[in-house]
Structure formats: structure tokens, C-alpha cells
Amino acid sequence: xxxxxxxxxxxxxxxxxxxxxxxxxxxxxxxxxxxxxxxxxxxxxxxxxxxxxxxxxxxxxxxxxxxxxxxxxxxxxxxxxxxxxxxxxxxxxxxxxxxxxxxxxxxxxxxxxxxxxxxxxxxxxxxxxxxxxxxxxxxxxxxxxxxxxxxxxxxxxxxxxxxxxxxxxxxxxxxxxxxxxxxxxxxxxxxxxxxxxxxxxxxxxxxxxxxxxxxxxxxxxxxxxxxxxxxxxxxxxxxxxxxxxxxxxxxxxxxxxxxxxxxxxxxxxxxxxxxxxxxxxxxxxxxxxxxxxxxxxxxxxxxxxxxxxxxxxxxxxxxxxxxxxxxxxxxxxx
Amino acid sequence: xxxxxxxxxxxxxxxxxxxxxxxxxxxxxxxxxxxxxxxxxxxxxxxxxxxxxxxxxxxxxxxxxxxxxxxxxxxxxxxxxxxxxxxxxxxxxxxxxxxxxxxxxxxxxxxxxxxxxxxxxxxxxxxxxxxxxxxxxxxxxxxxxxxxxxxxxxxxxxxxxxxxxxxxxxxxxxxxxxxxxxxxxxxxxxxxxxxxxxxxxxxxxxxxxxxxxxxxxxxxxxxxxxxxxxxxxxxxxxxxxxxxxxxxxxxxxxxxxxxxxxxxxxxxxxxxxxxxxxxxxxxxxxxxxxxxxxx
Lengths: 334, 295
What we know:
The complex is a heterodimer of chains A (334) and B (295). In chain A, strand 5 and strand 6 form a beta hairpin. Helix content of chain A is 44%, strand content 11%. Chain A is mainly alpha-helical and 334 residues long. Helices cover 53% and strands 14% of the residues of chain B. Chain B has helices at 7-11, 31-43, 65-89, 95-101, 107-125, 161-177, 189-200, 205-220, 244-249, 252-263, 271-294, and strands at 14-17, 22-25, 57-60, 93-94, 127-132, 137-142, 187-188, 224-230, 236-242. In chain B, strands 2-1-3 form a three-stranded mixed beta sheet, covered by helices on one side. In chain B, strands 4-6-5 form a three-stranded antiparallel beta sheet. Chain B has a three-stranded antiparallel beta sheet with strand order 7-9-8. The longest helix of chain B has 25 residues, at 65-89. Chain B is elongated. Classes of the chains: A mainly alpha (334), B alpha+beta (295).
């Protein structure tokens, strides 16, 4: 019965795909490990075939790949495309993003959720995030983001900007999954933004580097390793590769064009104060929370302990502890 | 550099028009014509050079044709995304906005572009574009099987599910209260307001205001239609009926069955409504089948 869902996903474009397209259009971005349950829901709602069995999470990526191959064939004619994007912080978290490939046009501006002032403010935050002298490159503090609008108002660049409006913009950007606000009050870009804004972030204005492994943008450098060959690699990419073997060679090339000979081992990740093992445990706990959210969407609350407080990850002085991350945001159903 | 081609090389070139499929030797054209043809071919990316064994052939389309074709395709993509974004955000799309975006000089191409947009929306998303000529607005209707189960929206924020429930209740109320005569305007707003306030078990000024706002929101999004009539004493009677969007999306037979389930009766106990429902459902199915055929 499970294979049936793969047959439908990889088969001719039908109402199941259309309904899935509607679902993903409404959300904009979904976690890859939720694709299975979403498509199963689509199949059952359409009703041609009832699929009772739930797809195991580890097979959701395979299903997503089949769907993307079939659907991109149709979406590309509309200037739309489904793209996979790994999360910069969470190991094994991958997103499926629906992006528009149309150059920004005036007509599409008027349908946007944000005013031109809000867009300018967001652009300003991007400039702050990727300023050369930013100690926490790729992120900014919420406080700095709010204070920046005062500066902009003083310079006359944004009229009527206020901290209240700026806070509302932060809330809306979070809600629409453009940004993540971590518990240490740092704002960074969500995978959705990294995908949608890839061209902008690669342009001369920001000129962000690519990860030597996945070739996608490296935004938040706190979560990236700078190799001796001067190439950046996402810590999540290193972690993912180390799950397959104990060590692997850096795929980057030196400035002189020679192969880099540095070997990555679990020791490499120690710098991030997370071992692969701990990361697995952290992921397991979050995975359980996520699994609950997928299977019983009515009960979207986090798993709770006896004291009815949300389950927290190891929160020592580890700067990469899950505590710093907006657990509520990411553990919530999309 | 094509401009450095020798006369001998030039003499082996043909200009082929893809529309008429005819080829004329380039040597029959003067130098300026040849240069112009090659420049046009280069800029429109239609320069194709065959192997050196055969005469070099440059396929040249009429200068405006290929660039215009590409432009129309990208305009169509933009219009599709505009329609999707506008209907998601506002619940409707202004016809004037779509016409402005489709400002293609050729009427034939413009009409074809609009048909392509409608077809693409249906083929890829199962969405139908409905034009309400009265308000000059387009609405986007979900034509998939799910609507037959009265699922009006997919994957909306959970706080909006209740709005769908209220909408269904209003549509059901209108359908059951109507006598389904010709030229019937719908149900008066007083009756609907009374029903909704009774549903919410409250009757405050604030609630009346928010309920009125809600009704107008449904009108804006095409679910309800509002009409106003002056009577002989000069009073205005406001009535609500199903809007164009509801007529294209909601299956009245399914709605009648749901009503009977709630009320504890059978559809046959409501012969007038059953007949009206069957007629409307049949019209809906015909429109569906017509849309699928043409898309």
C-alpha cells in the first residue's frame, strides 16, 4: 500500500499533485519530513485511492524527490519552482520551498504582504546582518534591528517608522517564515529566505560565499566552519557527512586551485560545542516533538514534562544549544 | 565575428524564414540586408549554424516575432503569479489589473495569453478563474474533488477554519430559506443577521457590527452577493444571495444533505429545495466538465 503513494507521486500529474500544489502554495515552505503526510492527506482528500498507512519519515525525502521532479515540470512554465534547502542550524532538517523565478516586477509588488517601507527596513536589516564589521556575521540582535529604524527615521529614509512597527514587521516575518528569532535574541534568515533571496544574496551587494559541500549560501557564519582552504562549510553539512563515515576530506580547493587535504572528523564539530552524538540526541527529542505535530495536528503543543513546562534541550553554556533556538517556532506544525 | 565573414562564406548562407519555411540564398540580398539579418539573428538568439559540411544556414525569424513570443510567455507567468497572490491576499483579482498586465498590442495574442493563463491555473493547480462582470473582478475557485466535500480552503491557518464554518452556515441558511423562484433576490439581511446573532447566542451592538463586517468581507471575496432594492416608501431592502464564487465551488446537493443530517430529516422532505439543488449541481458538473475539456 505504501508503494502506491510513490506510484501516484511519480506518475502522471493528477489531482493529487494539484491539491499538493495548492497546499504548498498556501504555506510557501514545508519541512521535507512532512511532505509524506501532506501528500498522503492530498491523496485521501481527492479520494481516488485511500492510503491508510503513514509514510515513515526516512522515506519522506524519497517521496519529495519524486514529487519535485514531476511538479517542477509543470511549475516552471509559471515561473515557479520547488527547491530543497537544508537548515543552517538543525542537523537533518531540510525544507521544501516554493520560489518564484520572476524578476521582481511592479505589478507583483502591489500584491505583496509588505509595504515599500517595510521592504526597505528589511533590506536595511540584511545590510546590517552582512556588514563586514558584524561580529556575528549573518545575524543581528532584535534590539539592534529595532534601534535601526530610529536611525532610518532620523535620516529621513523611512518616514513614520517606529519601534512598534518594526516589532510588528519582525513578528510578521517570523510568521511567514522569512526569519527566525532565536532565544538568544538573534535574528537570522529562515531557509525560505535563503532560497528565495539566493540571487540577491549572491549579488555584488552581499556576495555571500557558498558551502563547499552543498553549494548553497552560507549566511550565519556562527554555524559554519571556515576551512584552512578558506572555504566555508555548514556545520550541518559536516554533521550530515559524518553520519556516513568517521571522516571525510574537505571538497574545497585552495586559492591556488589545489585540492584541500584537510580531513573533517567529529572533532571538527567540537568547536561548535556539539558532538555528533549530542546533536543526534537533540534531534531525537525535537524529532519526537515534530512527529507528534505531524501525526496529531490538533495537538500542536510541545511535549511537556511533569511540571508542564516545555521539554528543553541541554542548555549549559553551549551557544549552539537548542535552547537558543526558537523551539516553539520550529517545532510548530507548518 | 559574423561581420568578418568572407564573401564566399556569405554566399553559402541562406536566410530561412521559420514562418514560411522558405529559404533564400543570402547572396540575393545586399550587404546591408545580410548584415542586418545576421545582427537580428544574433540578438534574438535564433542564430543556428549548421555543420561546416553543409551550407551555413541561418534561421531568421521575423525580427519581432521571437522576442515577442518570449515576452508573452514571461507576461503570462507574471499574470499567473499575480492572480495567485492577489486572490490569496485580497480574495479577488481586479479585471483592470489583469488587463493592464496583459497589455500586448495584438488582440489575438492578448486573448490567447489570457486563455493560456486560465488553462495553466487549471492544469497545474486545479483552479478556475471566474469573471464576475458585475463587479469586474476575477475569483479563483478550487475545482478539485475536495470541494464536493465542502472543504472550501485547504491548509488555512487554523483560526480561519471557523470562518469557513460560518460561511457554510450562511450559505445553507440562504439556500433553505429561499423559495427558489425566478428573480428571487435572496434573503434579507435582517433575517441573516438574526440567524447569526442567534448562532452566537448574543445580541450586542458590537457583535452586530462585526457580523456586518464579516458579511461584507464575504461579498468582497465573492462568496455572497448583495442587492439593494427601494420599496415604494423609499426604504432600502438589503438582501444576500450566493455569490458567483459560491455558485462555482459549493455543491448545493451536498449542502442540502448536510442540512438534513443536522435537522434530522431527509432531502425528499424538501422537494422544492431538492429539485433546485439537483438543477444547480447538474449545472456545476457541466461547467466542470467544460472547464476540464478546454484546459
